[in-house]
Structure formats: C-alpha cells, structure tokens
Design goal:
Blueprint (H helix, E strand, L loop, with lengths): L1 H18 L55 H4 L28 E7 L7 E6 L20 E7 L2 E8 L5 E3 L4 E3 L4 E6 L2
Parallel strand pairs: 1-7
Antiparallel strand pairs: 1-3, 2-4, 4-5, 4-6
C-alpha cells in the first residue's frame, strides 16, 4: 500500500511537471504557492469569486444589512433601527425617546412677567387634572419685569396659572402642549 501511495504521488508529480511550464529558475511548475487560474487567492486583500467573509475573512469584509437587527459598521447613523442604543432613564434625550421616554426629554416653562403686578404663585396642571396642585415658585415669586423658569416638566398637555391674589390672576385660556426637550414661554400682561 505504501508503494502504491508513493507511486500515485510520483504520477501526480510527473503530471504537475508536464502540465505546467517551467520558470526561468529551472524549478519547474512555477511553485506551489500560486493558485490555479480560476481559484481564489485568499490573503491577497481582494475579495474574489469563490471567497466569502467565512472562507476568507482577511479579503472579504462582512456584509452589512439594514434591518437584520445587528448593529454593524456605521449603522448607528445609517440604520438606527438596527442599533437601538437609546437607554431610557440615563438623562439623555436620544433618538426615538421623545415619545417613549419623557423623563429623558423633559420640557420647561419660562414665565415672563410683563405686567405691573408681581406673580406670587405659579401653578401647572395637566390637562386632565381637576386641581392646580402646589405653587411652583416655592418660597419665591416672579417680580415685575422678571422671569421664572420651571424645568423638568414631562412633555404633554397643560394649563398654567399665575396669581397676584385670589382675585387677580393670569391663566391660559386653552391647553398648551409642551414638546419634548423644548421651552415654552408664557408672557404675563395686564
């Protein structure tokens, strides 16, 4: 059996020497490291016919497909649906969070007192609330010509009320929708 294997090896060697022309060095056959004409050459930095990311990763870059739920390459900017990187609760308003994570995308209310009376209380009520709740100025007030900004309001529908006294006050006549990560300015006039 060993002779047969050697004999087959000799026949293959003879075939290779007769099938390939010799090079200038006289070694014959052109060397074992050159691929056959229609075979891919893995390692030449070219992704050729017959090579793939699996068979020759050094030559073939991975195929990036939008919609395959794998975040690859620069898909964070070109295919955000594959790169759901938004994290609700991290205090950053990221793409896609304006409607799904209002705590990360709060709005603010800037009340500007253009009247001739100070506003001693400021109330903010959601559109479906039956009461005004607590005074948002705390122990302060909004003096004539001054402004007061209330931050961290979840986006949504609101009414506002500012009071000089229980009989002299300002109130929005229609609902105000606070947009995510935006500031609404409410001007008080006589």
């Amino acid at each position: 059996m060993k002779q047969m294997t050697w004999l087959l090896g000799s026949v293959a060697l003879v075939f290779a020497m007769t099938a390939c022309p010799s090079d200038d060095s006289g070694g014959g056959g052109g060397g074992d490291d050159e691929p056959e004409p229609d075979e891919p050459d893995c390692g030449n930095k070219l992704c050729e016919k017959g090579e793939s990311q699996t068979t020759c990763p050094g030559d073939c870059m991975p195929t990036i497909t939008c919609g395959d739920m794998k975040c690859e390459g620069n898909e964070a900017s070109t295919c955000p649906s594959d790169c759901d990187t938004a994290k609700c609760g991290n205090n950053l308003c990221e793409v896609g969070e304006t409607s799904t994570c209002p705590t990360d995308c709060p709005a603010s209310l800037k009340t500007v007192n253009n009247s001739s009376y100070p506003a001693y209380q400021l109330y903010v009520a959601k559109c479906n609330d039956a009461t005004w709740g607590v005074d948002q100025t705390g122990s302060g007030y909004i003096n004539v010509g001054a402004s007061f900004t209330l931050n961290g309001i979840p986006p949504g529908c609101y009414f506002f009320r500012a009071e000089y006294s229980s009989t002299l006050y300002w109130q929005t006549s229609s609902p105000v929708t606070l947009q995510p990560s935006s500031q609404y300015t409410w001007n008080l006039y006589n």
